[in-house]
Structures are given as structure tokens and as C-alpha cells.
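Support request from a user on the community tier.

User writes: "When I paste my C-alpha cells into the form, the page sometimes reloads and wipes my input. The last time it worked, I copied everything first. Here is what I submitted, just in case something in the input itself triggers the reload:"
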């Protein structure tokens, strides 16, 4: 006789920009303009390679690569300019395919889930509204809650602790190589999404367990991951 064992449903930690909402390139252009304003004329593609890091790490990495040491005042100016330029285009941001559907599935079926973003709470709030979520009703971890953001694992570790889950039972969905590195360091299972502009090869090289085009594509293939969402909830 085969012993039947109860299994614990998996929990989910979701990145925000580039995973749930289509905001990566708005951030790229905002950072590029901000950096240019302080004398660091980086190309768009060079900025994109750093998206997914915390703002502070991005500024530090880009300025180091450009060979220009920024003062604390200049770094703060860059971050403030980014916020201003991003706000000018925030109305062009929209949910990515499958994002609202995944959130609905998780909520309606009692799965544990959280959002973890390298952005600040002030940046995250408008994005939650796009997804019909409220900050008070959502498990949310932002860069305001940790001392170091991605690729440091603190964001994901804080999210798993908030959910009361062991990292090994948590799927992290993210769109950048920094998400995948942080997920691996946290001991979670990283699922890469190409909706932020990184290729499948790049995400796999950063230790993604599987890679999908976006969340809609992920929902079509959850059976590959041993996830059993209720019948009829996945896209056709």
C-alpha cells in the first residue's frame, strides 16, 4: 500500500516592474535622462542591463562603469530626477498579459503570495492600483523595507518570512537576471519571464528554473512546475 502524503501548496513571490506591469522601458528612459543630466551619457541598452537592481545600486554601478565618482548629493539628484522623469510617463504603464489573471487565481484559491520590488513604496502604489490591488491588502516588500535590494536576496527572504514559508517552497517570478540571482541566493525557485527584455538564454544562465514569455505564457505551462491551479483558471 502506498502511503499518501499531504503536500503543501507552493507560495509565490512576484516581482513588479517588467513582471506584473509593463514599465521597464519607462524606467530605462527616465534613468538615462537623469544620468545625462549629471554628465553620464549612457546608452539606452547599457541602462537596461542594470534594470532590476535597486536605484542606488544602479546609479553606483553605472557611474563606476563610466569612470565618474558621484558624490552623495549627485547620486540623490540622479534618483530624484529619475522619479520626476518616470512620473511624466507613468500613465503609459499598463498590466502585462496574464498579470491580473494570476493575481485573481492566487487570491480566489487561497495561495500565499507577495510582491517584492526593488522600487520604493511610493513607486509601487500606483502600480498596485493598475492591478486592482491595495497596498493595505497586499503582502508587499519594497526597497524601503530592507538594507539592500536585488541582487541581494533580502527582498525575497523578507517576502518569504512575511508569508511564513520556507524559501524552498516558494516560486519567484521575475523578469531580470538580478531577480534570478536574488532568488537563487534566497533558496527559492526562480521562474524567468522575458517581458522585461532579458532573453531566455540570459535568464537561464542566471539560474532560472524555467523561462516563459510572460505571465500569460507561464499560466499555460504551470503543470511543468508541478503546480496544480484549479481546472479552467489557466488561459486557453
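"...and here is what came back when it finally went through:"
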Amino acid at each position: 500500500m502506498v502511503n499518501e502524503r499531504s503536500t503543501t501548496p507552493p507560495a509565490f513571490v512576484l516581482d513588479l516592474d517588467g513582471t506584473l506591469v509593463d514599465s521597464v522601458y519607462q524606467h530605462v528612459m527616465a534613468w538615462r535622462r537623469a544620468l545625462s543630466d549629471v554628465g553620464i551619457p549612457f546608452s539606452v541598452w547599457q541602462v537596461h542591463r542594470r534594470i532590476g537592481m535597486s536605484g542606488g545600486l544602479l546609479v553606483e554601478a553605472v557611474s563606476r562603469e563610466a569612470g565618474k565618482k558621484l558624490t552623495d548629493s549627485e547620486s540623490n539628484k540622479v534618483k530624484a530626477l529619475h522619479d520626476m522623469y518616470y512620473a511624466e510617463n507613468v500613465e503609459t504603464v499598463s498590466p502585462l498579459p496574464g498579470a491580473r489573471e494570476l493575481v485573481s487565481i492566487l487570491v480566489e484559491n487561497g495561495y500565499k503570495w507577495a510582491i517584492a520590488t526593488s522600487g520604493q513604496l511610493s513607486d509601487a502604489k500606483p502600480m498596485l492600483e493598475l492591478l486592482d490591488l491595495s497596498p493595505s491588502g497586499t503582502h508587499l516588500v519594497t526597497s524601503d523595507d530592507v538594507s539592500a535590494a536585488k541582487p541581494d536576496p533580502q527582498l525575497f527572504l523578507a517576502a518569504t518570512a512575511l508569508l511564513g514559508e520556507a524559501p524552498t517552497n516558494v516560486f519567484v517570478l521575475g523578469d531580470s537576471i538580478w531577480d534570478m540571482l536574488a532568488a537563487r541566493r534566497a533558496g527559492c525557485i526562480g521562474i524567468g519571464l522575458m517581458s522585461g527584455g532579458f532573453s531566455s538564454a540570459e535568464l537561464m544562465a542566471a539560474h532560472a528554473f524555467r523561462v516563459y514569455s510572460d505571465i500569460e505564457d507561464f499560466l499555460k505551462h504551470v503543470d511543468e512546475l508541478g503546480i496544480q491551479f484549479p481546472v479552467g483558471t489557466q488561459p486557453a
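Agent notes: The reload is a front-end session timeout and is unrelated to the input. The beta strands are 11-14, 113-116, 140-141, 170-174, 189-193, 210-212. The chain has two domains: 11-23+94-225, 24-92. Escalated to web team.
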